[in-house]
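Notes from hallway chat w/ T.B., transcribed later so I don't forget. T.B. wanted the structure written out for a chain they're using in a teaching module, and asked if we could keep both sequence and structure tokens in one place. Agreed to drop them here.
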Amino acid sequence: MGKELLRLFQDRKDQVGDFQVVGAMRRNGLSSPIESPPKPRDLKEVLDSLLPDVLIDVSSPNYESGEPSTSAYLEAFKRGIHVITANKAPLALHFVDLMGESLKRNVKLMFQATVMSGVPSINLKRVLPASHFISVEGILNGTSNYILTKMYQGISLRDALRDAQELGYAEPDPKLDLNGFDAAAKITILSNVYLNSGATIKDVTFDGIQDLSLDYLLKCREKGLKPKLVATASRSELKVSVVPLDSSHPLYGIDGVNNGLLLRTDLEDILISGPGAGPRRAAYGVLSDLVLLKDSLPKFS
């Protein structure tokens, strides 16, 4: 995803401005400038020597501890450095602590790319002031939704999964997509954003699609129902489960690799949808945060 982000910086330079990437921290060290070979460096030393305005995290999630990203964010905050992340794990595990520390240090922690990539699932809240959010529902995992769509058409789970892998919609090891864990991480983040839940992923009850039979899908179809892996957050529950939806439900028509988010408020229900996966789409989520950050701070205006 890092390469796609660099391409987007270049492709959208006229629209978003000229951002200077001063270095890239990889597993084997720091490249600064980014074209140079990596050299072993301590993160604290890197932050002190480069003094970036923003730290961007596009690393893989570690759901055991959130490290090394969680510690990296805290070190950045101490130095007045803003953080933009596409990494779900630190927020799914430590949302309240990380947001509290960023507020304490008067810096921004932005994370649109963690849920639905560039579709504004997180940043939508910016344009809904004074709304009272009652609940959040979503189809938040494109892999499982693609497989369920294919099964609804009469294809077995095994064949649908193989198809998804061949098309690049599923990882070689799709466990976290199929068992509901990925959606659980995302609904944890959304519940904190919209409901101030204070939840971590450990508070989510989740189940997935891994044990669904084709026969079950076809029987639901006969009844006019469409099973979907739905993540739900309200004041009383936080869960991910397969739900047979009828055609009146707003998420009924979210098929294929698309994601859908339904926000229920005291004034209205709001539905947004779009493709929620892919490196370029995730990179756009990061880029959108970066532009919003630049536009919100006098320093960058």
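Follow-up for T.B.: The longest helix spans residues 279-296. Might be a good example for the class.
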